[in-house]
Amino acid sequence: MYVCLCHGVSDKKIRQLAIDEGITDIKGIKKCTALGTQCGKCIKPTKEILAETEYLQIKQAS
User: Fold this and answer.
1) What is the DSSP string of 11-45?
2) Are 26 and 46 in contact (CB under 8 A)?
3) Signal sequence: where (predicted)?
């Protein structure tokens, strides 16, 4: 699903950056994509995706 319609950033891309690159915050995602640079509606869902991804990684590790 597209999280940032303005720049075509998907939830899959956000998860990939979180897992492969260890990015855990919006600032890091913004450095790699154009997310949040236009309308900003994608910031909240991106934070939720990052938190969910981090939670799942912790859960899998234990």
Assistant:
1) HHHHHHHHHHH---SHHHHHHHS-TTSSS-TTHHH
2) yes
3) none
DSSP state of 9: E
User: What is the per-residue pLDDT for 7?
Assistant: 96
- Take residue 23 and report the two structure tokens written for it: 């990015």
pLDDT one-digit tens code per residue, 44-55: 999 999 999 999
- Identify the bridge partners of residue 33 per DSSP, sorted by sequence position: none
All structural domains of the chain, each given as residue ranges with its CATH number in brackets, are 2-61 (1.10.10.1100)
Q: Which helix (H) or strand (E) holds 59?
A: helix 43-61
pTM of the model: 0.91
